[in-house]
């Protein structure tokens, strides 16, 4: 399990407790993205591995660090999980099982009707991204910005080198993986509203982020299907300070 975390000390204990209860057999690594509230200490207290970034890189940089760690530890697969309590650990086996027929699995909030609420403006923007993804990839995804995902080994190696670093990187990553020829699947999952923490971007910044990601998507589309890079020696994720013991 790869958990990027920025100032999530208040929500992380409950998330880790529920995670250990639901899937105790899986190792957990928390990537502390320059937190100032003791997030790393909370993670260490739970007994999971901790990678501490010296300053905030953003969720994309934190995830790339987690992917590098997974590759170095020779994991066959990994699941991305948020630290704010949105993702239900009981759904993790569903994501892992779907990797039997795919390289990259997205847990979708909207594949079926559920109680997950999204504001009108944000939902319209998400629908625009879904439409753009359909135009650019020829595929329909119901939740392009989901942060609840599973990755097989080939995708871990790919994203350890190339995972996008900007906010809303999840949309760019989905398009990049599609162009690289990976098998992508969606499975319906239940998600909760945030239990706490700080959102990745404030409302007044959302327009900028949506415009930027749209521009990036169409720019990437012009390059079309880039080949999957060969495996290369990666910079060590363990170089991040504060690595703790494995769960």
UniProtKB/TrEMBL annotation:
InterPro entries, A to Z: Glyco_trans_2-like (IPR001173), Glycosyltransferase_2 (IPR050256), Nucleotide-diphossugar_trans (IPR029044)
Residue intervals of the Glycosyltransferase 2-like domain: 2-156
Protein's UniProt name: Unannotated protein
Pfam families: Glycos_transf_2
Originating organism: freshwater metagenome
